[in-house]
Amino acid sequence: xxxxxxxxxxxxxxxxxxxxxxxxxxxxxxxxxxxxxxxxxxxxxxxxxxxxxxxxxxxxxxxxxxxxxxxxxxxxxxxxxxxxxxxxxxxxxxxxxxxxxxxxxxxxxxxxxxxxxxxxxxxxxxxxxxxxxxxxxxxxxxxxxxxxxxxxxxxxxxxxxxxxxxxxxxxxxxxxxxxxxxxxxxxxxxxxxxxxxxxxxxxxxxxxxxxxxxxxxxxxxxxxxxxxxxxxxxxxxxxxxxxxxxxxxxxxxxxxxxxxxxxxxxxxxxxxxxxxxxxxxxxxxxxxxx
Amino acid sequence: xxxxxxxxxxxxxxxxxxxxxxxxxxxxxxxxxxxxxxxxxxxxxxxxxxxxxxxxxxxxxxxxxxxxxxxxxxxxxxxxxxxxxxxxxxxxxxxxxxxxxxxxxxxxxxxxxxxxxxxxxxxxxxxxxxxxxxxxxxxxxxxxxxxxxxxxxxxxxxxxxxxxxxxxxxxxxxxxxxxxxxxxxxxxxxxxxxxxxxxxxxxxxxxxxxxxxxxxxxxxxxxxxxxxxxxxxxxxxxxxxxxxxxxxxxxxxxxxxxxxxxxxxxxxxxxxxxxxxxxxxxxxxxxxxx
Amino acid sequence: xxxxxxxxxxxxxxxxxxxxxxxxxxxxxxxxxxxxxxxxxxxxxxxxxxxxxxxxxxxxxxxxxxxxxxxxxxxxxxxxxxxxxxxxxxxxxxxxxxxxxxxxxxxxxxxxxxxxxxxxxxxxxxxxxxxxxxxxxxxxxxxxxxxxxxxxxxxxxxxxxxxxxxxxxxxxxxxxxxxxxxxxxxxxxxxxxxxxxxxxxxxxxxxxxxxxxxxxxxxxxxxxxxxxxxxxxxxxxxxxxxxxxxxxxxxxxxxxxxxxxxxxxxxxxxxxxxxxxxxxxxxxxxxxxxxxxxxxxxxxxxxxxxxxxxxxxxxxxxxxxxxxxxxxxxxxxxxxxxxxxxxxxxxxxxxxxxxxxxxxxxxxxxxxxxxxxxxxxxxxx
Amino acid sequence: xxxxxxxxxxxxxxxxxxxxxxxxxxxxxxxxxxxxxxxxxxxxxxxxxxxxxxxxxxxxxxxxxxxxxxxxxxxxxxxxxxxxxxxxxxxxxxxxxxxxxxxxxxxxxxxxxxxxxxxxxxxxxxxxxxxxxxxxxxxxxxxxxxxxxxxxxxxxxxxxxxxxxxxxxxxxxxxxxxxxxxxxxxxxxxxxxxxxxxxxxxxxxxxxxxxxxxxxxxxxxxxxxxxxxxxxxxxxxxxxxxxxxxxxxxxxxxxxxxxxxxxxxxxxxxxxxxxxxxxxxxxxxxxxxxxxxxxxxxxxxxxxxxxxxxxxxxxxxxxxxxxxxxxxxxxxxxxxxxxxxxxxxxxxxxxxxxxxxxxxxxxxxxxxxxxxxxxxxxxxx
Lengths: 290, 290, 381, 381
Description:
The complex is a heterotetramer, with 2 copies of chain A and 2 copies of chain C. By secondary structure, chain A is an alpha/beta fold. Chain A has 2 domains: 11-120, NAD(P)-binding Rossmann-like Domain (Rossmann fold, 3-Layer(aba) Sandwich); 139-288, 3-Layer(aba) Sandwich (Rossmann fold), CATH 3.40.50. Chain A has helices at residues 19-31, 57-64, 75-87, 102-114, 157-168, 189-197, 215-224, 247-254, 260-269, 280-289; strands at residues 11-14, 35-39, 47-48, 51-54, 68-71, 93-95, 119-120, 126-129, 134-137, 146-153, 173-178, 204-210, 231-236, 273-275. Chain C has 3 domains: 21-92, ATP-grasp fold, A domain (Dna Ligase, domain 1); 96-224, ATP-grasp fold, B domain (D-amino Acid Aminotransferase, Chain A, domain 1), CATH 3.30.470.20; 234-380, 3-Layer(aba) Sandwich (Rossmann fold). In chain C, the strands form 4 sheets. In chain C, strands 7, 8, 9, 10, 11 and 12 form a 6-stranded antiparallel β-sheet that branches. Chain C has a 5-stranded mixed β-sheet with strand order 13-15-14-16-17, sandwiched between helices. In chain C, strand 10 and strand 11 form a beta hairpin. In chain C, helix 5 packs across helix 6. Chains in contact: A-C, A-D, B-C, B-D.
């Protein structure tokens, strides 16, 4: 068992002929991921690292029974690529590309939601399920060891940092999800918690957050209403200078200051164990899993 | 029993303070229709012919438990009015206004379809169920007598002509629907046939068509696949000069010449009795209902 | 509102749809200059609202500026589809490898925009649609999401294109959709889309018909472009001014009715009784006395008219108003030719009373009325 | 991309959002002329990217053109939020009856645009949101259908407006949505929207922040308007040129990391051990040797720096490239101050080998590294 990506996952790489697509296809294959096909409009019929390339997702899916997609397409075209993957029912759709226009992100996320499809990202390192050696992403696979803790994070390298710390402490991961760093992403921490709650392989959840927005506060509020798994959190940015503000509207909407203090308080009030340092996550997990 | 409009129907008139809205509200009330409220943004709190006026459909519906809407709003604003009625779940929504932009018609029809709501029109005389004295439309109620024949038509006054002919011949109507004369309308003849098939009060159906498009041909094709009620048709325009053509695309799509001959042939081939003259409709019905 | 080829091409280019090098000319001299600017063999094309202008001689090729000038002179002197040619488009002549079809219109039954393409474009596209429908690719546009790049790509593939040409055609299909969507188009069409021997894709012809009901959203068009130069006679002009649907026909009976369907059915009824209509005149909904009088007046202006049939089914239209209009027409305009009135529906009794007082007879059914007017016409002849 | 008030107002007016009579001025003389044109008492407003410019003295009122000139002179000499004032907007002074708030932004959790309104606008809107949230009306925009007229109307009603004013406000809310939608706006705001004593509704202030990721769709903006005139020092400029996130802080330890989250966590770790960062420098993903070298170089330019902490978690970034960059920085730039390297992940061994060969020590955990660099900094001081 795992979340969103398991041993049956068969991946299409959209934008496989670009430098990022080519590099990470090799890296995913090396890790063990079942990358079955790639797309690059106009380059159908060629191959990349032995992976056959098609003009469309429809063709790639039809020929290789693919189930999921990872997108390395420039921001201006990434939304269309995601809509293409959605129209073919691929799930999840992992959007590595960063800086998509917010309007496009909103559109893609809601079209996906209507079809029951999960978008991971945009601007995500992806998702990895170590026990089945499947990563649909760009993270260094070796820092994630298999285990029973679900990990989700808004930032990339900090996720690796914490995963590496867990590995060092002998605590493994069921599935790790990079939620994505763009303003609007397909999976909120709250939605991530719901996924992990329904996963038999997951016994505890780590939430790695950072300053800005109110996603962590909302997750805290969700946990406070009763959540069956122990949750450990780490929030980056306690010493960060106050960020730029978005007029009045931002503050009116979020109803939150978005500071690390506010997030940590909300999480602690909800019964979440909050780590002071990344390395402390493993300690708190050990306690929680006893 | 009846189609779309029955004794429980409670109508809101959108655009009640305009001259058309006011005139036909009086006419509907006189006929017996349960017009429970009207809307006219900015004029909430007033009344028209004793019918209370609200600023929004939401308020009108909340106060009067309305179930259906009839729209007398200028074309540029009619689509929004329809979306407002749809958002409040009113059903059917009868759009009297003509000449809505096609793009707006498409949008409204599909939003309604997603919610299971029927749009009648645009550019329709409306819908009438004589047995319960409910008309949601602008037709002269007295030409429609109650009975067991479903009537639907693409044109207005021709409908009255045929209804009057039926009344004269002692044949009554279960429900009569003006399908509407604009390029895209909410109810096609085929969809109308499906509604009448499921109505216990309807024992036969009359389809009044005219030249242009291929709606009658498609209805014929539907009937030919097996339809449990007798169908009588009249097609206007046998002697009309050939209309203007819409480039190649129109012909490619419709795959039909759109002439009266083509329509009559398709209907006859499907087993539909086609009247030569409007007055003949009653004769054919009498035979069919034997 | 239909746009002329060169007007449509101006818009197409603004949406990154490449067109052949060219420019419009209103005189032979201008055409010569245009051809000189282009500097190679050209096509000179009549700018008219008419299909099959090629068959009518409205497209000529020229190797030199002088030839272009002469071609323009000939074409500008033509009438095509009974319309004068006021301008020609002078364009580089293309080295054709393949003719492709692209079009977008509304499917009234699906109630969706539909994008149509075929690798076999040109004038025979309609026959192809009947003969080999599998060669025509159709894609419906999601009414709420619009048309996506990947859908345009799937369409281009279905049309048989791969490799670099796949991406070029995909962009063009998308651009055509943007034109259609931005302009509320009933029809947006490139036929043919030419693949030249050098591998360029160019819109050799261009059609853009904008939804008249949506023109209020396109002030730039209505302000900037002249409207369709329909040549109207005085009667047609008058009817248009009064927003009445008016068509002149070959017969001698003027049919004045309310509602297009009823008017058509009235024409049919006249024909069934052996008569022939001279006039299709639809007063529209809710005509008052003044409008009825004006309608009769317009119909009577047509010399072919020998009899008048007024057939009114009162709904919004009130029979008393119609009766007043008829009485007024008779009093003010004479109305000396045979006239048959059939009028039922709203305020029927009041209307009949008005007619009776004025001594004007009327009938109760459409068929009686049609029969009667045909009879009267025969008596007059 | 943020627009200045007068730039935003130009756009608002194009969408039929009325603004006070006024015009921009770059000199006191121009301001005087503007005031004369307006012919009544005016407000002179600093055009800067800063909230609370009123509190900073950036808005002054003037009864005569001379007073307006003097006000402009004072304001143009100011710095607000550490930014120079390059222009003022001279506008008719309004007779205020009511201050209303209208704004549109993105709700990141709902992942929808949200339209916000309140009948109590002005500078205290945020406090109102906390104190009396029921006075703030929020409407979410359907991601596929957009915002409808009837929704704007329901919003205006919820804000407390009826009658004629209901329709005026409805149109303004819709227009504001059109601006937001057309310009890919992160924030579109009118605060205050003034209801004057004569009953006019006018956008007294205007904000429009365009999504930077969508700027490629708004060439007219990027070509036509100058960008946000951020005053940058040489180091900030250099970092921006190399597309590195660079922020200068009060401390003395330069933190050079990859990824914003990790960089923040590194700053936090330094603080936990009693140190203070001088520099937040995020190299981003996949930095090569050259980029690492450049990052160190930029960080060292800041005089406050006493020690360097390089903290790399290799993912796309390869440790061998990082090591090469560090070695190059030391060889080419000296790098004589205390430097702590922590580097794990992709190509860790190769990287460590390179560092070892060059005699540069490295640590394995972030906490050790943070502790060590704080220690070294204290030794230096």
